[in-house]
Amino acid sequence: MRLVVGECIADLHPSEAGGVGDATTYTRRPGGAPANVAVGLARLGDAPRFWTRLGRDGFGDFLADALAAEGVPDDLVERDEEAPTGLAVVGRDAGGERSFSLYLDGTASVELRPGTVDDALASAEWVHVGGVELAFEPARSAVLDLLDRVSGDATVSFDPNARPGLWREFDYADTLDRVLPAVDVVVASAEDLRPAGFAGDASELARRLVDAGPHTALLTLGPNGALGRATADAPWGTGEADHGGFAVDVIDTTGAGDAFTAGAITALSEGRALADAIRFANAVGAASTTAEGAMAALPDRESVESVLAGESEREG
């Protein structure tokens, strides 16, 4: 069983290009990086349990219904009677690139409490945690408590998902110093690591990450694919591997990193070697960019296999 931990929020997507708040109308869509990972795993064939917290409001009802429609169990989807559901307002420039303004402080999204989900944690074979919760209390304490209690037999993955504007009460670099030794796999971009003082090219960043504690580091490189590094402690073998990505007709890159993460967790938990897992995860990420939206565009196995087959045909 897999357990995903983190925020599920309502994304407000603009009807026209412009900065955050410039559009006249917005469309609500389910979002939040951990929620995207949970749904991504479900679409790839194995729905995880998802520990999150929603407000008892219209946005919360909308998100709860969206998760249920994807087959994500609702036993760990908490509802808060007082705090509202978290929101993200999205901006979109003329080239399709997105920007986000997150409204999480004081919302149900960051009201996870320590000392809970004991049964789910005890039975989890893989636990994935998002980093946004670590910027706020009490969710920060809840995540750190969970990392302290997770079984040694479980694989723990972590997405820092750096959002500099959120880090007001706690220090981001100090937080990574605390979390990285407690996890096995970290999935990140260079943009996630620079604010914490990590420097160098992708290979150097991956090396520095595994030196900090995880046995596996996966670096997403946007249109250039991804690179991974694993130490001798990794069950999928040691070494460094990369894959240059896939040529697809890109419509929207929102959530591609979350799709990659779902693909990587799926492939590695299935026992694939590091290089094959990166190739599969890249295919999931690429497939997710061929439709509009983050969660809505997450692919199923058939779509991923189509991307993989296209590469094989070109190589043939």
From TrEMBL:
This protein's record includes keyword Nucleotide-binding: yes
Coiled coil: none
InterPro entries for the chain: Carboh/pur_kinase_PfkB_CS, PfkB_Carbo_kinase, PfkB_dom, Ribokinase-like
Boundaries of every Carbohydrate kinase PfkB domain copy: 4-300
UniProt KW keywords: ATP-binding, Kinase, Nucleotide-binding, Transferase
One Gene Ontology molecular-function label: ATP binding
Entry-linked Gene3D superfamilies: 3.40.1190.20
Pfam family for this entry, one: PfkB
Family recorded in the similarity comment: Belongs to the carbohydrate kinase PfkB family.
Protein name: Carbohydrate kinase
